[in-house]
Amino acid sequence: MKKVMVLMTVLAALAIPALAIQSMNGEIEAQGEIVEVSTQPATLTLKEAASPPEQSGVVREFVVDEATQLTSRGEAIDIADIQPGAQATVRYVVDSGKNVAKSIDVTTPATD
User: Fold this and answer.
1) What sign for the dihedral angle of Cα 71, 72, 74, 76?
2) What is the mean pLDDT of the chain?
3) In the chain, where do the E strands start and end?
4) What does pTM read for this prediction?
5) Could you give the CA distance from residue 109 to residue 66 in angstroms, rounded to a whole number?
6) Checking DSSP bridges between strand 69-72 and strand 42-48, what pairing results, if any?
């Protein structure tokens, strides 16, 4: 029985990194590569990175509204400044079935 519990714990630990992380305040965090940005309507599409890499690849679209905090390296930016290929961390909530971004932090700008 103890071996089964250990195995279940290990399997659960391996599965957790593939999932977005939910914080105490209900926000969920996702990290990965920005694949698309639209200004009208304001949306951002992110391909999530996970560990191990074979669990990566979940693609999520986020609504960006006037309350979304947009930053890059600690500086405020506009959605038009965000380019596909950049790495980002998105904190969001699910509201009426939509992923609404609370904050987007561009951690590594896109390379040309």
Assistant:
1) negative
2) 83
3) 21-22, 28-39, 42-48, 59-63, 69-72, 75-76, 87-95, 98-108
4) 0.76
5) 22
6) unpaired
DSSP bridge pairs for 31 = 89
User: What pLDDT score was predicted for residue 112?
Assistant: 66
Name the residue type at position 85.
G
Question: What's the burial of 86, exposed, middle or buried (CB within 10 Å: 0-12/13-18/19+)?
Answer: buried
Span of 36-40, 53-57, 66-70, 90-94 with lowest mean pLDDT: 53-57
Give the angle subtended at the CA of 30 by the CAs of 17 and 96, to the nearest 5°.
120
List, in sequence order, the alpha helices (H) in 1-112: 2-15
